Amino acid sequence: MILLAQAEELFRQPTSDLYQYVTNMENYGEWFPGVVEIASLNALEPGEIGKQYVETLELPIGKAHLTIEVVEAIPGCIFITKGDLQPLLPRMEMRFYPESESECRFQLSYYSRNDGLQETGDIIATLREDLSKRIEKAMKNLHEQVVI
């Protein structure tokens, strides 16, 4: 896998509250820049393995539509999705590190699962630059939106 962007922040929120908010992908557009629309594709509960969403993103090359699926979820610990957007084949990882009952360190990472892409190529460089800006803004947005 190729790391595209990563950020880690301390949130003054109980881990369970932060986990519940960010792993409900229908909330994703509220805090992550560039998400135009996201909607559930099946009746599974948010955070369940196999839960699918259709997402519309604003990318440097224009709008893109993809399906994302929850592939790993351990409440309060980890949440991973994979998407079908070619040629990127995105993977998003959220990791939660409880610091205390009322604080959680949250790590958000984006990867390309397509090892056929050149890590030093133009596609990866453009995506890294774009996602680095978005992930920084996303963390600021989250700090504003998850206040109890």
Task: Briefly summarize what is shown.
With 148 residues, this protein is α+β, with helices and mostly antiparallel strands.
Description:
With about 150 residues, the chain is an alpha+beta fold. It has a single domain (about 1-145), classed as Alpha-D-Glucose-1,6-Bisphosphate, Chain A, domain 4. It has helices at about 15-25, 30, 120-145; strands at about 1-10, 35-40, 50-60, 60-75, 80-85, 90-100, 105-110. A 7-stranded antiparallel sheet has the order 1-7-6-5-4-3-2.
Topology, pairings included?
Elements: E1 2-11, H1 15-23, H2 28-31, E2 35-40, E3 52-59, E4 62-74, E5 78-83, E6 90-100, E7 103-112, H3 122-145
Antiparallel strand pairs: 1-7, 2-3, 3-4, 4-5, 5-6, 6-7
Please identify the oligomeric state: single chain
Structural class assignment: alpha+beta
CATH topology: Alpha-D-Glucose-1,6-Bisphosphate, Chain A, domain 4
How many domains would you count in the coordinates?
A: 1
Q: Based on the structure given, which CATH architecture is correct? A: 2-Layer Sandwich
Q: Taking Cα atoms only, what radius of gyration do you get, to the nearest Å?
A: 15 Å
Annotation, overall tally of beta strands: 7
Q: Major sheet: order of its strands?
A: 1-7-6-5-4-3-2
- Main sheet attributes: strand count, strand direction, barrel closure: 7 strands, antiparallel
Mean pLDDT: 93
The shape, in one word, is globular
Report the end-to-end length measured between terminal Cα atoms. Answer: 36 Å
Helix content: 25-40%
Q: What fraction of the residues are assigned to beta strands by DSSP? A: 35-45%
Q: Sketch the topology as an H/E string, one letter per element.
A: EHHEEEEEEH
The CATH class is identified as Alpha Beta
Output the number of helix runs: 3
CATH superfamily: START domain
Low-pLDDT parts are none
